[in-house]
Amino acid sequence: MELQKRICRAPIQKDGWTLCFRATAGLGSPVYDTWTHVGYHDDYKYTRTSMPCGCTATSGSCDRHYRSFLVDVWPSRNLEKVKVALYENGVEKAFMEFRGLDSNYLNWFSADRLLNSSWTDISGSALPYFSIFGIDEPGRVTRRFYVSKGHYGCPSDFGWISIKDKGHVCTWETASHLPTFFYSKAQTGITWETQGSLVGRADVLAVWLKLRSDVDMNKPCLP
Question: Are the beta carbons of 84 and 207 closer than 8 angstroms?
Answer without folding.
Answer: yes
